[in-house]
Specification:
Layout (H helix, E strand, L loop, with lengths): L2 H10 L3 E4 L9 H5 L12 E4 L5 H4 L6 E6 L13 H14 L8 E5 L3 H8 L8 H5 L6 E7 L2 E3 L6 E3 L9 H4 L1 E2 H9 L5 E7 L5 E2 L2 E2 L12
Parallel strand pairs: 1-2, 3-4, 3-5, 5-9
Antiparallel strand pairs: 6-7, 7-8, 10-11
């Protein structure tokens, strides 16, 4: 493994959550909810199914599949996520050059809409999206990377990825639930799954306020 790969493993080692027999030992949202005291923060979740997959193993597996999403340019009043494209491109480079993934096994999206995210990961009715179809049962190691905005549902308090056509004030109907993401990934017959989420969930971002319906959030000039 290269020095870059070693560095990445060290940085993220404290966030690993093992899931033997596909049963949660630890709820992944715990990492997020324990950080909600911070106004703005970076959340990184690494999720490994079956406790058998590692980043080094992926480099040796020709069937490895990566999903890389960078959501920067948002519609409407939602501020852009200026870092997202650069982060996604850096992850793509890392996956290709350090982990040895095949170019044809990378699902790479910039400024993904809700429909495009559902096309990849499935929806409430079925987990069988594009990723599911690309996975070879018990042979594929899967890496999922998302960089962009995250948001809390104002009514249910759940965590959502915000597509570029989503409304942060209506996350329950326009966002993509992280709970659904985990649920559908758990039904994917991959050998291992690793998830990185690079997003703010505080209602604010480095570019401005996301959730404008929350009282107490005031944008300073």
């Amino acid at each position: 493994m290269s020095s870059n790969a070693n560095l990445l493993s060290v940085l993220f080692s404290n966030f690993v959550v093992n899931v033997p027999n596909m049963t949660w030992r630890k709820n992944p949202t715990t990492l997020y909810r324990s950080s909600r005291l911070f106004d703005c923060f970076l959340i990184v979740v690494i999720w490994v199914l079956m406790g058998t997959g590692t980043l080094s193993a992926a480099a040796q597996n020709q069937h490895s599949v990566a999903v890389i999403i960078g959501n920067k340019n948002y519609k409407g009043q939602t501020p852009n996520a200026g870092f997202a494209h650069n982060d996604a491109q850096a992850m793509r480079k890392f996956v290709l050059e350090d982990l040895g993934y095949r170019t044809g096994n990378i699902i790479d999206l910039r400024d993904a809409t809700r429909n495009e995210i559902e096309e990849i990961f499935g929806n409430e009715k079925t987990p069988e999206g594009k990723l599911f179809d690309w996975v070879k049962a018990k042979k594929s190691d899967v890496l999922v990377f998302y960089s962009g905005h995250g948001v809390l549902g104002l009514k249910d308090g759940r965590s959502y990825l915000l597509p570029v056509d989503g409304n942060a004030d209506r996350a329950e109907t326009t966002g993509y639930s992280i709970e659904l993401l985990y649920s559908n990934l758990a039904k994917t017959p991959a050998r291992s799954i690793t998830v990185f989420i690079d997003a703010y969930f505080s209602g604010r971002s480095a570019s401005g306020i996301l959730v404008r319906s929350v009282s107490g959030l005031t944008e300073l000039a």
